[in-house]
TrEMBL record:
Compartments, as annotated in UniProt: Membrane
Annotated protein name in UniProt: Chloride channel protein
GO MF, one annotated term: voltage-gated chloride channel activity
Keyword list, A-Z: CBS domain, Chloride, Chloride channel, Ion channel, Ion transport, Membrane, Repeat, Transmembrane, Transmembrane helix, Transport, Voltage-gated channel
């Protein structure tokens, strides 16, 4: 084993912390231009060892590592491709499409099951409470309502805290980080999938101000991962025929399809799902993936349509025609003039301001909750129960502040609504009257959005009721996200945005002809743009939801305005959460200060390299002392005429080779056929995180430790390399664009060792650069350069 103090090696593919335990996962401020304003993540100076960084996944602290989308071009890879026949290649392509079909089918079924379960559980709870209210047994109705909610909330928090903490939250930040190249234990495990499904059902049914749309993205990704790796050996769910995708590239594509399918299942928006994956989730995209993603979401749409038609006959309990949020505001004539555009401008500004404030407050709340969640599962459950109690008290108590309104004579629906969802909830009002605030609070979130979006209801809700509902939903949405329950932000944001949209529409009713239901739609769009900073995908999702293509120009305008306003204050909510969780996400662009640095400035040592024919003991020693996942291989005389970089060998491949015990007593190079005899390409395939061969599994005797092993056949002979004088900005763009885990840095001048160091994801993180170059933090000139 060769170790040189002149070489630099920082971190080989695990997302590792610095040896001195400096703070982990820190990131730049909102525009990435000021290194003096680095923000602490939720994980504060926790170190497990010197080679693995940790981050918060769901509600749990886990070690994380990088994914590797590079093709390892070694002898076994070349031999495998040469031996493949045309029919095998054809089967591989067909299997990709078959898996896309399965992902769409299963995600559609899960989405339907989630909605049907929520509608029946929440519907039963609301019917039971309403019956007691009609009998004027208000105290018993209150305790029944609160008790049901607390039991459901405690159950959701318990299974999340004890079985799969990674299932907490929406899961979109974790999926986004995974598709960017960051893996974590249990992030896509079968246990996470099950808890995500049932925890989301229980959480939404408990009346929390949260949605099941975000968790559906995570659910779709978990389904795709389960299929891509051929099932789960732990749970005895394996399909040998599906174990062809034992590499990060194919799994990444499948999980991209899964995330798109999740959005399509949540909103019945297949095109919106594709655009969501393109705009928000995926970091790499190509035309072939676009086709498969579109096919997956189309399958979801067909499955949902068929199941909804089946339920129209009343065979699904209380599900009926509700559940899957589909709003139709096309009853209104979407004609607009200059005063209407002024109203749209106002909505966009309000959405940008409220959205950025929402993100700021969510940031503060999550940091506070992290202190509570650190104390263990019982405290997570207790926090959830407290938020449930507060939410239930608001939902039941605030409608008492509203005045009873006489039922309109021309009401299309039954008024007051008795025993089912609808616009006109009776609550405590006498016959012939309804409570407008109860119509919003005492419904499922989906039905409340329908009521707000409904056209031709200018006088249905009092202004005071809308103000109360907006304030409650805005505040409850902030304090609810972060509890140990699968929870999405789409629904709270749409609810709050639709409410203030109706408020603006009512206030500006004298200068505009737009229906308040359309203002509610535009308000929801503005708040989505202000919080999530998505434009194209949100625009299409809303249009698919509302079936109102004529509103396209107005939705586009309000999204652009709200996003522009909000971007001047902070990042989007998912980008903020990625930073807070300590996930080392790499942006598509390099930061301005990187243009003043070169690749050689940020590699750090010591570098550990191997010879092409290395002593077994040296390899075992290096693997035992480090957590590195890649090692450079350098041949020196007599194996070569002069020192030369052979390539890069992966830790997982070394373990497989050592386990095969192809050792020799002399340091000689063997033919590839002899080294690889007894191995198959699948032996070197990627296993699930934490499931591959480990060093502790090897049984190597003292005599074998003194023998040699030829590694040339498993070395990636064409790793990506950059010269040490390349600007760090260019190296970062190259690293991310190619989805690399290791980037070799070679010397510019001859006569030096053939490799200077290895760049990994960690080397591009601001905290690492500041640790190496502390003067850069104080340098205003370096960080104020324009792009």
């Amino acid at each position: 084993m060769e170790t040189s103090s002149n070489h630099h090696y920082r971190w080989d593919g695990d997302i590792e912390s610095s040896v001195d335990g400096s703070s982990l996962g820190m990131s730049l401020d909102r525009n990435g231009s000021d290194l003096s304003e680095l923000r602490e993540p939720l994980v504060r100076k926790r170190t497990m060892n010197t080679t693995s960084q940790i981050a918060i996944i769901g509600a749990n602290v886990c070690p994380i590592e990088s994914l590797d989308y590079e093709i390892v071009e070694n002898d076994i890879f070349k031999q495998d491709w040469r031996s493949r026949q045309k029919n095998q290649i054809y089967q591989y392509v067909v299997l990709k499409w078959f898996l896309a079909l399965l992902i769409g089918l299963l995600t559609g079924l899960v989405g339907f099951f989630n909605n049907m379960a929520v509608e029946n559980i929440a519907g039963f709870k609301l019917l039971l409470t309403s019956e007691l209210m009609l009998k004027h047994r208000y105290v018993l109705a209150f305790f029944t309502y609160v008790g049901c909610n607390m039991v459901l909330a405690a159950a959701a928090a318990a299974i999340c805290a004890y079985i799969a903490p990674a299932a907490a939250g929406s899961g979109i930040p974790e999926v986004k980080a995974y598709l960017n190249g960051v893996d974590a234990y249990s992030i896509l495990a079968p246990s996470t999938l099950l808890v995500k499904i049932f925890g989301s059902i229980l959480g939404v049914s408990a009346g929390f101000v949260l949605g099941k749309e975000g968790p559906m993205v995570h659910t779709g990704a978990c389904i795709a991962n389960l299929l891509g790796q051929g099932g789960s050996r732990k749970y005895h769910l394996t399909w040998r025929g599906l174990r062809y995708f034992k590499n990060d590239r194919d799994r990444r594509d499948l999980i991209t399809c899964g995330s798109a399918a999740g959005v399509a299942a949540a909103f019945r928006a297949p095109v919106g799902g594709v655009l969501f994956a393109l705009e928000e989730a995926a970091s790499w995209w190509r035309s072939a993936l676009l086709w498969r993603t579109f096919f997956t979401t189309a399958v979801v749409a067909v499955v949902l349509r068929g199941l909804i038609e089946f339920c129209r006959s009343g065979k699904c309990g209380l599900f009926g025609q509700g559940g899957l949020i589909m709003f139709d505001v096309s009853e209104s004539v979407a004609t607009y003039s200059l005063p209407d555009l002024i109203a749209i401008l106002v909505l966009g500004v309000i959405g940008g301001v409220f959205g950025s404030l929402f993100n700021f407050l969510v940031d503060k709340v999550l940091r506070t909750y992290s202190i509570i969640n650190e104390r263990g599962a019982p405290f997570k459950i207790l926090l959830t129960i407290i938020i449930s109690l507060l939410t239930s008290c608001c939902s039941f108590g605030l409608p008492w502040l509203a005045h009873c309104t006489k039922c309109p004579a021309d009401a299309v629906e039954q008024c007051p609504t008795v025993g089912r969802s609808g616009n006109y909830k009776n609550f405590q009002c006498p016959p012939g009257y309804y409570n407008g605030l109860a119509s919003l609070f005492f419904n499922t979130n989906d039905d409340a959005i329908r009521n707000l979006f409904k056209a031709g209801t200018q006088n249905e809700f009092h202004m005071s009721s809308l103000f109360i509902f907006f304030t409650a939903i805005y505040c409850l949405g902030i304090i609810t996200y972060g509890i140990a329950v699968p929870s999405g932000l789409f629904i709270p944001v749409i609810l709050a945005g639709a409410t203030y949209g109706r408020i603006v529409g009512t206030i500006l009713g004298s200068i505009t002809d737009l229906d308040p239901g359309l203002f509610a739609l535009l308000g929801a769009a503005s708040f989505l743009g202000g919080t999530m900073r998505m434009t194209v995908s949100v625009c299409v999702i809303l249009l698919e939801l509302t079936n109102d293509l004529l509103m396209l120009p107005l939705v586009m305008l309000v999204l652009l305005i709200s996003k522009t306003i909000a971007d001047s204050f902070n990042k989007g909510v998912y980008d903020q959460i990625v930073v807070m969780k300590g996930l080392p996400y790499m942006e598509a662009h390099a930061e301005p200060y990187m243009r003043n640095l070169v690749a050689g400035d940020v590699v750090s040592g010591p570098l550990i390299s191997f010879s092409g024919v290395e002593r077994v003991g040296n390899i075992v020693h290096a693997l035992r002392l480090t957590g590195h996942n890649g090692f450079p291989v350098v041949d020196e005389p007599p194996l070569s005429d002069s020192p030369e970089l052979v390539g890069l060998v992966l830790r997982s491949h070394l373990l497989v080779l050592l386990n095969g015990k192809k050792f020799t007593k002399d340091r000689v190079r063997l033919p590839p056929q002899k080294v690889l005899a007894g191995f198959s390409p699948s032996d070197f395939g990627k296993s699930g995180l934490g499931k591959g061969l480990k060093l502790e599994d090897l049984e190597i005797t003292d005599e074998e430790m003194e023998m040699y092993v030829d590694m040339h056949s498993i070395v990636n002979t064409s790793p990506y390399t950059v010269v040490e004088t390349m600007s760090l900005a260019k190296a970062q763009v190259l690293f991310r664009a190619l989805g690399l885990r290791h980037l070799c840095v070679v010397p510019k001048t001859p006569g030096r060792p053939p490799i200077v160091g290895i760049l990994t994801r960690h080397d591009f993180m601001p905290e690492h650069i500041i640790g190496l170059l502390p003067d850069l933090k104080a340098s205003k000139k370096a960080v104020s350069m324009t792009m």
